[in-house]
DNA sequence: CCTTCTGGCCGAAGAGCATTCGGCACCTCG
DNA sequence: CGAGGTGCCGAATGCTCTTCGGCCAGAAGG
């Protein structure tokens, strides 16, 4: 995992459709060598998958909110309960007064309210505190060249 | 944008490396027709880009935190100031007591503290409240088939 | 009703690319 | 010194992307 690998990762984050020839030229390697490095990055799990990034607004999910979920019990085994709600895009166990933080996308605020209702229905959940996003400045992946 | 487009999006989210032949077969189209649909989805901006998903832990960013940023001024034009910090992966203007919510990844809690210091240095920022993530249940993209 | 136009699909063909392989250079360790 | 391992190059082959002409169905308009 040297600076060449990091550069390859950064370029694949920007555009995973480019050819290995172009990729290799950008970092000073042949197409075969670039391919081999990328193959190993996948094998080691550094590259989890290559995916199409879809615009949420195009799918009708115009409302973004973060919800602090308070609980009266240990939530460490509740991942599946949160994953069962398709509108929940992220779920994290956090330190602090709440116990779980979730990221939610819905089409309308009415649907957001419905998600809150379903969150309440999860075992151990005793309260929620929603924060609605007014404008997103940016969302981006980790920078492999900056770490 | 019918159910075939949504199915194509869902499959491309899971694996953007598969061939158009496989993609077409999965939705009952020829390779050429599948390619044409995907091309238009890109053209319309529904597919923003195709990207390699990198494991943050592999890059040494093992600490994830959400930071509520309080401000004493209008922050609507401060996107660039937040984008200048590479550790800041998301920045949103929010409704509520704080005014900006940012997502931060660093290698250590010491570096997190340094990011907080740099956040304070942004014009108009009057306070921060960091929430450290103990365990991430999951992070996933929007589900095109569920909306 | 019939014509015309548009949009989407199929199937084929050519160009371009991914993937593999042998060979070579370099480094490390016995 | 020699053996093993690693990483790279350059070429070959097989597959894929990409484009194109032709076809069909449905809409629009006379």
Task: Summarize the structure in short.
Chains A, B: InterPro entries: AsnC-type_HTH_dom, Dimeric_a/b-barrel, Tscrpt_reg_AsnC-like, Tscrpt_reg_AsnC/Lrp_C, Tscrpt_reg_HTH_AsnC-type_CS, WH-like_DNA-bd_sf, WH_DNA-bd_sf. By secondary structure, chain A is an alpha+beta fold.
**Highest CATH level, the class of the largest domain in chain A:** Alpha Beta
CATH architecture of the largest domain in chain A: 2-Layer Sandwich
Strand content of chain A: 25-35%
- Main sheet specs of chain A: 4 strands, antiparallel
Order of helices and strands of chain A: HHHEEHEEHE
Number of domains of chain A: 2
Question: What value does the average pLDDT of chain A take?
Answer: 95
Instruction: Report the end-to-end length of chain A measured between terminal Cα atoms.
Output: 12 Å
User: By helix and strand content of chain A, what is the structural category?
Assistant: alpha+beta
Which chains have the largest interface?
A: A-B, 63 and 63 residues
Secondary structure: number of strands of chain A? 5
**Which strand order spans the largest sheet of chain A, edge to edge or round the barrel?**
3-4-2-5
GO molecular function (chains A, B): sequence-specific DNA binding
Keywords (chains A, B): DNA-binding, Transcription, Transcription regulation
GO biological process, one term (chains A, B): response to amino acid
Protein name (chains A, B): Transcriptional regulator
What does this structure look like?
Two copies of one chain form a homodimer. By secondary structure, chain A is an alpha+beta fold. The first copy, chain A, folds into two domains: 3-43, Winged helix-like DNA-binding domain superfamily/Winged helix DNA-binding domain (Arc Repressor Mutant, subunit A, Orthogonal Bundle); 56-132, Lrp/AsnC effector binding domain/regulation of amino acid metabolism (RAM) domain (Alpha-Beta Plaits, 2-Layer Sandwich), CATH 3.30.70.920. In chain A, 34% of the residues lie in helices and 31% in strands. Chain A contains five helices and five strands, in the order αααββαββαβ. The first copy, chain A, has helices at residues 3-14, 20-27, 31-43, 79-83, 109-120; strands at 47-54, 63-71, 88-94, 100-106, 125-139. A four-stranded antiparallel sheet of chain A has the order 3-4-2-5. In chain A, a hairpin with a 5-residue loop joins strand 3 (88-94) and strand 4. In chain A, helix 2 (20-27) packs across helix 3. Chains A and B meet through helix 1, strand 1, helix 4, strand 3 and strand 4 of A and helix 1, strand 1, helix 4, strand 3 and strand 4 of B. Strand 3 of chain A pairs antiparallel with strand 5 of chain B. The first copy, chain A, binds a DNA duplex (30 and 30 nucleotides) through residues 19-21, 29-33, 35-37, 39.
């Amino acid at each position: 995992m040297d600076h060449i690998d990091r550069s390859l990762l950064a370029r694949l984050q920007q555009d995973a459709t480019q050819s290995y020839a172009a990729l290799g030229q950008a970092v000073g390697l042949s197409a075969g060598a670039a391919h081999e490095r990328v193959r190993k990055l996948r094998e080691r799990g550094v590259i989890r998958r290559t995916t199409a990034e879809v615009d949420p607004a195009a799918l009708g999910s115009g409302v973004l909110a973060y919800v602090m979920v308070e609980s009266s019990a240990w939530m460490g085994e509740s991942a599946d309960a949160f994953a069962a709600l398709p509108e929940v895009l992220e779920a994290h166990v956090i330190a602090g007064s709440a116990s779980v933080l979730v990221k939610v996308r819905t089409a309308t605020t009415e649907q957001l309210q419905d998600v809150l209702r379903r969150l309440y229905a999860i075992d151990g959940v005793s309260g929620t505190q929603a924060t609605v996003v007014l404008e997103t400045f940016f969302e981006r992946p980790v920078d492999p060249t900056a770490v």
